[in-house]
Amino acid sequence: MAATITIATDFSEHASSSSSIKSLSESGITSIPSSFDASKNLHDLAVLDSPQNSTIPIIDFSLLTSTNPQQRCKIIQHLGKACEEWGFFLLINHGIPKRLMESMMEGVKGFFNLSDEEKREFQGKHIFDPIRCGSSFNTAIEKVHCWRDFLKVFVHPHFHFPHKPPGFSDTAFEYLKEIRGIIKELLKGVSESLGLEADYISKAVNLESSFQVFIANLYPPCPQPELAVGILPHSDHGLLTIASENGTNGFQILHNGNWVKVIAPPNALMVNTADLLEVVSNGKYKSNVHRAVVKSNSTRISMVTFNGSSLDQVISPAPELVDETHPPVFSCLTYRQFYEIQQSNSLHNKSVLDRVRIIP
């Protein structure tokens, strides 16, 4: 006889005094509330394991910044191919000190280990509040909740950060400064791979005043991981998204109609091509659809940095990539408009990008 799967019918039944998934997970529940049942979203496509993972592009950042023109030319070609065929790559030799990455991860753990009462200080109520923490993604309208707690912070052009735990803000400032340096160099390479001047994208999006958002995600152990999802399938809203995790391997990307498990080498960064870059490249470089899955016996933590244009910058396809053969694929919009649309709706693949797509 097949095993019976029980789903709790009421979130409040188990978590009336809790405001986090972490607390819900630690409460001893043996089944998930029905609002977290994402089984219809989880089993629509095949999941490919590690053999396919070996083909995921790996970009050596040290070659991208090399003074050897032949090395740099070759890695720029690899970078363009990764953006076009995968919308994703693993970045190695990026130069961020290992100790800084470890300290940042410890700060994230420390924040999520604060009591729910302490974290309520940082809840926020509006999508443009500079510091917000909470659970799922947008519980007000989403039909399926995500098994996830998050901390979301605006860190550029103005730096904001929680003052707890001690030292976390200082560590984050240094870490995110390193990330911006990496983004600047990556966008040079991406520009050149498109046949544009190295500084084209940086100038087109006003990178010096770019809107940068840091998100820490906590995916606690789940009693029914086959039913729940950490974050629903979606593409990101910026240019390039840089992420790292605590080694639990719960990240999956959609490639050629299948979900591919990503197993990153130690200290490597995971990089997604995001929606605004698809707009700028006039559809040549595709933003990547991805999701996070959960496990029954381990906690996954990820640190994600969204890097976009300045909020009021109008984003449109690069004129150099538009002609009679390649008409504009997307309409113009500001990053602020795009961000508002994405943050005010539920997550679903490329639903936001599709709203600005020009239908022939």
From TrEMBL:
Residues 209-309 form the Fe2OG dioxygenase domain. One of its GO terms (molecular function) is metal ion binding. Signal peptide: none annotated. Pfam families: 2OG-FeII_Oxy, DIOX_N. PROSITE patterns: FE2OG_OXY. It comes from the Eukaryota. Keywords: Iron, Metal-binding, Oxidoreductase, Vitamin C. PANTHER family: OXOGLUTARATE/IRON-DEPENDENT DIOXYGENASE. Belongs to the iron/ascorbate-dependent oxidoreductase family. This is Protein DMR6-LIKE OXYGENASE 2-like.
